[in-house]
Amino acid sequence: AVDKMNKPLLRPSVRLVNALAGEQVPLMMGDPQKCTQLVYNLVTNACKFTERGTVTIEANYDKEKQLLEVSVVDTGKGISKEGQKRIFSAFEQEQNGDNRSFQGIGLGLSVAMGIARLHGGEIRVASKAGQGSTFTVVLPCDFQKRAALTLRAEDGSGSAKSRAAKQVAALAARAAPGGGGGAGGSHSS
Predict the structure, then answer these.
(1) What is the 3-state secondary structure (H, E, C) of the chain?
(2) Nearest 5°: phi and psi at 145?
């Protein structure tokens, strides 16, 4: 992967680890482009801010709670407690070290969180400055619960967010058992 200046995002001293091999990850219903963008934003951020070590992608499915957790774990610079409060806001970036050598205006994590919320989920961060970060996307796999969560995410204004929430809820209703089947927007994470 390369950044907007066509510089490699993955340094030679960083190894990308796919820890998903062999994992039983359930079929996820959602917008495939948006889900891909969400994971891409998290992985490219991890690559940008990791000078040496690893960037690992892992998944865990909690069958009892019907939740899928996809984590991007890096050995990078980490994020201060103060930075963690801001990083999901639009146009915000953690200001430490040489991060300004990368292009961007601080929208990636805000967009990623918006996508997670439209799919009835969230993103959690665990990090300490100088010790790396773990970003975990938590998404519900229960189609009926997802439809209810998505409808609650509506703001009632007829905005694009509200229209998108209705579309996701309609897809969830069709994909649910007995709901008409055939969700062409299925995405396997």
Answers:
(1) CECCCCCECCCCCEEEEECCCCCCCCEEECCHHHHHHHHHHHHHHHHHCCCCEEEEEEEEEECCCCEEEEEEEECCCCCCHHHHHHCCCCCCCCCCCCHHHCCCCCCHHHHHHHHHHHCCCEEEEEECCCCCEEEEEEEECCHHHHHHHHHHCCCCCCCHHHHHHHHHHHHHHHHCCCCCCCCCCEEEC
(2) -65, -40
The one-letter amino acid code at 179 reads: G
Any residues with CB less than 8 A from the CB of 166 and at least 6 apart, and which?
151, 154
Asked if 187 and 30 count as a contact pair (C-beta separation under 8 A), the reply is yes
pLDDT in tens, 95-151: 555 544 555 667 889 899 999 999 999 999 999 888 999 999 999 987 555 555 545
Backbone Cα Rg of the chain: 17
Distances (CA, A) of 49 to 19, 63, 106, 121: 20, 33, 14, 25
The β-bridge relationship of strands 53-62 and 14-18 is parallel
The pTM of the full predicted model, rounded to 2 decimals, is 0.70
β-partners of residue 68 are 61, 139
For 36-70, write each residue's pLDDT tens digit: 999 999 999 899 889 999 999 999 988 889 899 99
